[in-house]
C-alpha cells in the first residue's frame, strides 16, 4: 500500500510539472506570435527571438517530463527484498522511491523523495537489503524496510 501511495504522489507531481511547463509554453507563444506589422523596432524582434528560444527549451523540458511520467507509470509495484528500480526504501526519517528525481514530500510522518538510478545515492544503496546501511556525504542511513 505504501508503495502504491508513493508512486501516486510521484505521478501527481510529474503531471503538475507537465501542466506547468505546458502553461508556460502557451503563455510564451503569445509573445512569439507577433505579426511583423506589429513589430515596432529591432528590439521587438530581439525579444521575439529570445522568447522563441525559451519556448524551445521549455518544449525540450516538456518532452523529458512526459517521458519521465511514462517511465514512472511502467515501474512495477511488485515487492522487492533488495534496492532496485521501483523500490520504496524506508529509513529512520526518509522514504526513497527509486524512479525519477523529484522534490521532497511529506509522507507517512516522514519525507519522501524520488531518486534516479543515475543518482549517487542510488549507487550507494543498490542491492542493499533490510538492515543494511549506506552513506551519502556525511549522513548514514539504515534501511528499515524495502517495499
Q: How would you portray this structure in words?
A:
With 147 residues, the protein is of the alpha+beta class. It is built from 3 helices and 7 strands, in the order ααββββαβββ. It has a 5-stranded mixed β-sheet with strand order 3-4-2-1-7, covered by helices on one side. β1 and β2 form a beta hairpin. The termini are close together. 19% of the residues are buried. The mean pLDDT is 90.
Which helices and strands occur, and which strands form pairs?
Elements: H1 2-32, H2 42-74, E1 88-90, E2 94-98, E3 104-107, E4 110-115, H3 120-125, E5 133-136, E6 139-142, E7 145-146
Q: Number of domains in the coordinates?
A: 2
**Strand arrangement, major sheet:** 3-4-2-1-7
Class computed from helices, strands and strand pairing: alpha+beta
User: How many strands, what sense, and barrel or not for the largest sheet?
Assistant: 5 strands, mixed
Shape verdict? elongated
Helicity level: 40-55%
Give the helix tally.
Answer: 3
Query: N- to C-terminal separation?
Result: 9 Å
Mean pLDDT: 90
Total strand segments: 7
- Uncertain parts: none
Radius of gyration from the alpha-carbon trace, in angstroms = 21 Å
The sequence of SSEs as H and E is: HHEEEEHEEE
Percentage of β-strand residues: 15-25%
Amino acid at each position: 500500500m505504501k508503495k502504491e501511495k508513493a508512486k501516486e504522489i510521484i505521478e501527481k507531481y510529474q503531471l503538475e510539472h507537465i501542466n506547468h511547463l505546458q502553461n508556460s509554453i502557451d503563455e510564451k507563444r503569445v509573445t512569439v506570435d507577433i505579426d511583423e506589422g506589429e513589430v515596432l523596432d529591432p528590439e521587438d524582434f530581439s525579444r521575439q527571438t529570445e522568447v522563441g528560444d525559451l519556448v524551445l527549451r521549455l518544449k525540450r523540458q516538456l518532452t523529458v517530463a512526459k517521458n519521465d511520467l511514462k517511465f514512472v507509470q511502467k515501474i512495477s509495484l511488485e515487492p522487492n527484498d533488495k534496492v532496485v528500480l521501483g523500490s520504496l526504501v524506508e529509513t529512520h526519517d526518509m522514504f526513497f522511491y527509486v524512479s525519477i528525481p523529484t522534490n521532497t514530500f511529506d509522507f507517512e510522518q516522514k519525507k519522501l523523495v524520488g531518486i534516479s538510478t543515475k543518482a549517487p545515492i542510488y549507487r550507494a544503496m543498490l542491492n542493499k537489503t533490510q538492515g543494511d546501511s549506506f552513506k551519502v556525504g556525511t549522513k548514514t542511513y539504515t534501511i528499515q524496510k524495502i517495499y
